[in-house]
């Protein structure tokens, strides 16, 4: 799952939104003209994005930001390779990059075979060594760590730090390598519900090996093959070389300026980052070695960092950008409709939410948690932010499903306890507090107008019950989120819209997206990954949803509406409500020949 700005990995994770039913995409509406000029190969497409770039690895807790993930989608480090998700939330295989197939149900066995022409952007071949590294990162196979309630390692070793969860993938044995080092076979000891979303391509093994002091990717594979599976009950001393490799993967890709180390730029996907000016723009150009099925027509894609929605519309109108995906509002939609741009709208696989930090002393008492949630003016927040865009929108009442995921959403809402928070209950909150006046620090993105409005509405309402709400908002909120130095947080999750890997990511005790240290649903969340029985899966998810409300996890606020604005010079953009936004079908984009640049 990715946070809006964020997301999730391996079995493509993203928002706590998926569940068993694929998200139903609402019908898109369009307005404006796209012109009649013929498309041409080449050209540059400029896309406005809200958040700045921070890391070439979007799969770590601190790198799990939507812009990082979108760059990763284009460079192959996240979400492209063997498959992708289309705008109907269906899994599409890219057999030109490589083929994968289930070759046995018992035990579940899946084989991945690369195209012999696959290469990294530095000309080095993509091999089984790269897939072995991808598996090692995602599976947690070598970890022997135990954790305290705050998520800190108390014994053993955690090597790779990922934003997602190892649940399901961690039940595989060391892969079998074959076909002249172009294939791996994964054998699972238990069924894994999201096996078709596993994409074992991440960072380049030859680069990671180099940073760890090894001479080749093959040497890294040899090392991994000799190391035992981690055992938290009998941990051994950490392997220094693997620790060095993991440290590089965990933090070595985080950047604050365009890197002088070109190793960080090496890409397996259709594009490679060629320049970046922090706070302004990032440029990606075609990877000349890419031989997969998602070959782009355009030469360059430029990310323009424009946080403000009105500024995005102005930039589109002035021809400074070609595509925008701003936070939807009535003003934004009205402004877009006054331009000649094509307007695409629909639901997002995304929702805003308030999470309470279970590592906070303030919320150690469930009565205080319940009291605070009774003060949250969810209907007021919906009416001010979403209703002007979607008059039919309703307050979100599930942590697992969205309203268009029926019948699961409706069935769960009837029984999950969300009705206890339908209305603000100040007197009820006061009774629970019994005269106490707790101080609550709320983290949120101060550059996001919606989050500012949410914070102000919550702080005003909570004060009526006696809470002292402290503004802990920051433009660097995403970097602060994993640290837990706050009592509550306001942000959004955005999902790929397929699979269930976001469930353990958010609700297992050590899930990579479990920033609020919630553990009450741990066992059910783990069990979702190892059942192929649809009815059992739904039952487990309903249990998690009910547990989240009964333990006062926090509150979902609303599903976000989405809008794209597309300049008439660009064709091929289609609406998509998941974490990849307009980038999801970049290979179909073309620039009209009369205006190509």
Give a quick summary of the entry.
By secondary structure, the chain is an alpha+beta fold. The protein is built from 16 helices and 23 strands. Strands 1, 4, 13, 14, 15, 16, 17, 18, 19, 20 and 21 form an eleven-stranded mixed sheet that branches. Strands 7-8-12-11 form a four-stranded antiparallel sheet, covered by helices on one side.
Topology:
Elements: E1 2-3, E2 6-7, E3 39-40, E4 44-49, H1 66-75, E5 83-85, E6 91-93, E7 98-105, E8 108-114, H2 128-139, E9 146-147, E10 153-155, E11 176-178, E12 183-187, H3 205-211, H4 217-226, H5 240-251, E13 271-277, E14 281-286, E15 300-305, H6 309-317, E16 323-324, H7 330-337, E17 342-356, H8 366-374, H9 378-385, H10 408-415, H11 426-433, E18 439-443, H12 449-463, E19 468-471, H13 477-480, E20 488-494, H14 502-507, H15 522-527, H16 534-550, E21 554-566, E22 570-571, E23 590-592
Parallel strand pairs: 4-15, 4-16, 18-19, 18-20
Antiparallel strand pairs: 1-20, 3-23, 5-6, 7-8, 8-12, 9-10, 11-12, 13-14, 14-15, 16-21, 17-20, 17-21, 22-23
């Amino acid at each position: 799952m990715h946070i809006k700005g964020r997301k999730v990995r391996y079995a493509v994770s993203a928002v706590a939104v998926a569940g068993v039913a694929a998200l139903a995409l609402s019908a898109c509406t369009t307005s404006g003209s796209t012109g009649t000029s013929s498309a041409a190969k080449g050209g540059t497409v400029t896309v406005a994005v809200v958040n700045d770039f921070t890391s070439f690895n979007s799969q770590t807790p601190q790198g799990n930001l939507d812009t990082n993930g979108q760059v990763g989608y284009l460079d192959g480090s996240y979400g492209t390779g063997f498959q992708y998700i289309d705008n109907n939330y269906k899994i599409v295989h890219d057999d030109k990059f490589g083929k994968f197939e289930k070759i046995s149900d018992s035990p579940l066995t899946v084989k991945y075979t690369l195209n012999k022409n696959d290469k990294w952007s530095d000309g080095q071949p993509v091999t089984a060594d790269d897939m072995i590294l991808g598996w090692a990162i995602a599976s947690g196979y070598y970890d022997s760590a135990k954790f305290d309630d705050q998520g800190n390692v108390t014994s053993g070793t955690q090597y790779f730090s990922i934003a997602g969860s190892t649940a399901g993938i961690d039940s595989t044995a060391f892969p079998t390598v074959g076909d002249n080092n172009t294939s791996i076979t994964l054998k699972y000891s238990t069924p894994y519900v999201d096996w078709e979303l596993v994409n074992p391509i991440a960072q380049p093994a030859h680069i990671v090996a180099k940073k760890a002091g090894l001479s080749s990717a093959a040497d890294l594979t040899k090392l991994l093959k000799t190391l035992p599976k981690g055992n938290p009950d009998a941990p051994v001393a950490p392997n220094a070389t693997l620790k060095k490799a993991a440290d590089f993967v965990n933090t070595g890709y985080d950047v604050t300026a365009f890197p002088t180390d070109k190793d960080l730029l090496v890409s397996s996907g259709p594009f490679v980052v060629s320049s970046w000016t922090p706070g302004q723009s990032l440029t990606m150009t075609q990877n000349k070695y890419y031989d997969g099925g998602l070959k782009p027509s355009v030469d360059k894609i430029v990310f323009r960092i424009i946080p403000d929605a009105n500024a995005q519309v102005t930039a589109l109108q002035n021809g400074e950008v070609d595509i925008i995906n701003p936070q939807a509002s009535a003003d934004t939609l009205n402004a877009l409709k006054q331009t000649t741009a094509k307007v695409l709208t629909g639901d997002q696989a995304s929702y805003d939410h308030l999470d309470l930090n279970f590592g906070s002393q303030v919320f150690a008492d469930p009565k205080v948690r319940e009291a605070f949630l009774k003060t949250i003016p969810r209907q007021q927040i919906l009416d001010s932010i979403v209703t002007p865009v979607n008059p039919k929108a309703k307050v979100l009442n599930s942590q697992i499903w969205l309203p268009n995921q029926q019948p699961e959403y409706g069935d769960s809402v009837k029984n999950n306890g969300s009705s206890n928070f339908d209305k603000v209950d100040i007197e009820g909150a006061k009774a629970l507090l019994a005269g106490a006046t707790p101080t609550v620090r709320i983290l949120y993105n101060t550059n996001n107008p919606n989050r500012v409005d949410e914070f102000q509405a919550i702080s005003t309402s909570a004060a009526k019950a006696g809470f002292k709400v402290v503004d802990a908002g920051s433009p660097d909120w995403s970097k602060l989120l994993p640290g837990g130095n706050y009592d509550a947080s306001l942000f959004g999750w955005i999902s790929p819209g397929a699979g269930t890997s976001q469930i353990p990511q958010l609700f297992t005790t050590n899930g990579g997206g479990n920033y609020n240290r919630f553990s009450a649903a741990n066992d059910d969340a783990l069990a979702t990954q190892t059942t192929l029985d649809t009815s059992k899966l739904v039952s487990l998810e309903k249990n998690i949803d009910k547990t989240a409300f009964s333990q006062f996890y926090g509150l979902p606020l609303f599903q976000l509406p989405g809008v794209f604005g597309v300049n008439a010079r660009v064709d091929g953009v289609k609406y998509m409500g998941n974490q990849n936004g307009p980038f999801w079908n970049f290979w179909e984009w073309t620039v009209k020949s009369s205006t190509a640049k």
